[in-house]
Amino acid sequence: MRTASQIAALFTGPQVHRDVYTCPEIYKLEMQHLFANTWVFVGHESQTPKKGDYFTTQIGDQPVIQVRHSDDEIYVLYNRCPHKGTKIAIDREGNTGKFFRCPYHAWSFKTNGCLLAIPLKKGYENTGFEETENAKGMTPVGAVRNYRGFVFARLAAEGIGFEDYFGDSISSIDNMVDRSPEGRLEIAGPPLRYMHKCNWKMLVENQTDTCHPMVAHESSAGTAVNIWKEMGNPEPRPPAMEIIAPFMSPYEFFENMGIRTWPNGHGHTGVHHSIHSDYSAIPGYFEALSATHGKDRAKEILDENRHNTVYFPNIMIKGPIQQLRNFIPLGPDKTLVESYIYRLVGAPDELLARTAMYNRMINAPTSMVGHDDLEMYERAQEGLMSNGMEWVNIQRLKTGDEDFTEEAVENGTTERQMRNQFDAWVKFMTATMEKA
Amino acid sequence: MAISREEVIDFIYDEARMLDEGRFSEWLSLWLEDGHYWMPLDYKQTDPHLVTSLLYEDIFMLRLRVERLNGARTFSQKPKSRCHHVIQRPFIDEMEGDRIVTNTSMHYVETRLDEQFLLALTATHELKVVDGAIRIANKRVDILNCDAAFGNIQLLP
Q1: Residue B75: its chain A contacts at CB < 8 A?
Q2: What is the CATH T-level fold of the domain B5-143, as seen in this structure?
Q3: Is the pTM higher than 0.90?
Q4: I need a labelling partner for A234 at 20 to 30 A (CA). Which of A84, A150, A228, B130 fits?
């Protein structure tokens, strides 16, 4: 296994070694260290609104259950019976009542994981069973935090705290939730599930890659613009024009849009404006938000047009769209992308309709935009196997040494956020490795 | 002259053949201007608007889809995908006045390079007779495993 210094050597600043995308050993170390030491998104509290409601997912390669306990708090447990390892819940969501019951030998557990009962318990008397870890029940993850409805977990028992980890980056979640007149989001239906034969980090990097839309998406966004012109520029614009056409904006637009990076690998595009800035107003929405916050504050909330906010390691949220994309690693060259949408509680339905439209137009396995993105990732995954060159270049607008412990706002076409992610990658990969 | 049941059934077969032979412009001309092509994401989904679907596309989007397939810089279509529908004889669920509703089971195969996948589908066509010709008013395609994770589905099941 590679040492901490060998891991650190994979990121030089301007370049990153292809092994981070292709090497099974590195992937295994990511699952063991990176996804244990960081705060990883689990789910939204509205996916488990009632006591006994649960939802199954993964943190890295670890199967977990998000469940609402009888104290109304959300717990995150490893999805494994402490007896023989059977997954306790196999469906994606459900309600288990007051306890979980393993379908194999009927061991049962409270919804906070504590062992409740074992049939023929006498058989364990005088065996020393009480001293084992198996007797404790289902294992909870290291730490859980429900931040304004978004549930994050750290697998490791010890490590960086939630506030230190996210810092001011949490303002993007705040802005998304503040857009609800009731200050609350609700999940709207199941997520799109899109399988990618590429490394999970390619997807995360692409979220702040502002030099690809006008190239990779010319076939969809450029064609949309051409058809609209042929039609004589009809108004109101077709929905496709509002959602897809801004991808065709010139480089200058993306340069001026700006990128902000925060410590620990977080960052966002769209500091000054974004492709979401010019959406048409939905009647009644501003009035509803103003009734809660007053006009000035409502305007301030809506003037924030952050495009993609990356929460390191593996989610992206769009505040103005109320969307969250979870890039779930399944292997060095396999990633499941789940794209969720949320209702702004108290806002008109038309907003949610636009959100659902955005999700299917851009992020579905049937999306014309998604098709070209996936094509690029899969070509890169295959191309990186070439021995003609081992290093990937991410040095666009890198002038001199960079200090990622400071927040920074830069030209919107910088690759600084990608470098920021790899800086955090090294930090959390090596935090629990022996220093050699 | 009234449309016969046989003409309705032939129409469904002809539409599938157009897609399989890549005659997309001809296929587009079957549609009425206010039609929608809907592919739900959820099993027995009832609402196309307030939850996500795989597709819910108006004529502008369908036209964009067809023109994109022929574009010079459509990278995910270099090389092009091909598709193949095997369809069961359609049920005619409604046939009254100028409105016809059919329900058709299909197996859909799509291929590109070394990859090929199979989807089991039920297509519901809402058809309308306009000036003596059958047109598509709306089409709904339910994929049997709609809740599974898919790679690219690039053509039209």
Answers
A1: 216, 219, 372, 375-376
A2: Nuclear Transport Factor 2; Chain: A, (3.10.450)
A3: yes
A4: B130
